[in-house]
Amino acid sequence: MLPPRGRPQPNRPKDGIRINQDIRVPQVRLIDARGVQVGVIDTQRAMQMARESDLDLVEVSPNASPPVCKIIDYGKFRFEQAKKQKAAKAHQQSTGHVKEIKLHFQTATNDYRYRMVQAQEFLAKGFKVKIMVQFKGRELSRMEFGHRLIDKAKEDLAPYGDIEELKVEKCFAIAVSPRKGVKKKETQKPAEQAKHETEQKAAGEALNNGGDPNSQRGQNA
pTM score > 0.70 for this model? Predict the structure, then answer.
């Protein structure tokens, strides 16, 4: 079978899509170059129409009976398909991935604030966030402090997402899902900047009190 005149043939598809002379069924259901449903016609006639339009005959639904074909530019079709697949993959990664933040019932105030800013940034980017307050050994006797911390986290993150309590052994845990339409506030500082500022503030307060800058660690949040 002769290739269409006047139009260079694209490389043979590696994605399993049949085009032009690779379509060997006797009849196809055709959609023309304007997007109009032509109906079931002979494949040879469909190829002739594609040649006359200086386009390709592309099989878009091979499992239909008869297969559905479109008269389109195959190069542009491949480009659009790649864009859709990339967008779908990015959406799946952003919505399906869970960011986990672990706290301790003795987490210092400045560390807690940094973690909350971090959680807000994750939510603003569309990630789901899991917050956990863990206990080990004798710490299980002080779980009320962890309960207070997780309640504070729920209060601080409520404006940024929908909160779900999770049942995890030896932990208090919540999952926060990003809420549509909620954007990160313009005044909110990036997590690294917030961490740096809270550490400087803690060091300054400790020096003013004649103490160790790390003395705040170990206090209840």
Answer: no
